[in-house]
Structure prediction request, 279 residues.
Amino acid sequence: MMRDLVDTHCHLEWPTLSRQLEAVLERAQGCGVRQCVTVGTSVESSGAAVTLAQRHPMLHAAVGIHPSDAAAATPDALQGIERLSHDPAVVAIGEIGLDYYRMAAPAARQRDVFGACLDLAHRRGLPVILHCRDAYDETLEVLRAEAWQALRGVVHCASGPPAFIEGMVALGWWISFAGNVTFPNAKALQALVTLVPDDRLVVETDAPFLAPQPVRGRANEPSYVLHTVEALAQLRGRSLDELAALTSANARRLFGLPAAPDPGRDRAAQAGVPGTPAV
Ligand SMILES: [Zn+2]
Ligand SMILES: [Zn+2]
Prediction:
């Protein structure tokens, strides 16, 4: 069986990755990564994410304004995100949320932008990619509101107290673990893994950030999602391929992704020769 991995959260439009994208995607495919969601953090990076996803069958895009970029979320920028959200390459609104750890924008501003983006996800019928740091109670309170009952999405780079993860699972959301779950001192984070039911668990790299343990300190990239799946498989007492298949099926359900493209077809598409088999 061919290994099947989905990286649900990376930033391939980041210059260090986009400059060598062909090589990055080839290494990812070599490790069994079949699809990636590349995630915007501003109107500019969201536009770049959509452009990449239009070019590569294995890439899908998310568009949104990161809480740390909330100060730049003008009405024009929000309208830009809405326009981009209509592109067929877009599978989610994100990353959006609250970050009271960095507090790069005032809390009230973050809340306003988060609300506007949740409203967009609701109107467009798209899942949400949630970024939440040190705003766990407030995020749960926001998402429990009547208005957002129909919204679904994923807690990206899971963290926080067990009650937060349990609360998000109860709301019907998915939970995504990143490379930091592989760190030897990440006991509290590893304990969260057991709180997530089999059908809600997904994985991500958050590349180029947060490279997992064996490659910690290096620039992260989608191929390294394998190390995170390995750690999760160990924590849950499953085989690597079982956990890969499980998390990838979950990711496709969460984002409504098509079946994985054949890697040969992707390379042919990149070379601009449709239908040419890979060599
Ligand atoms: Zn994030
Ligand atoms: Zn991110």
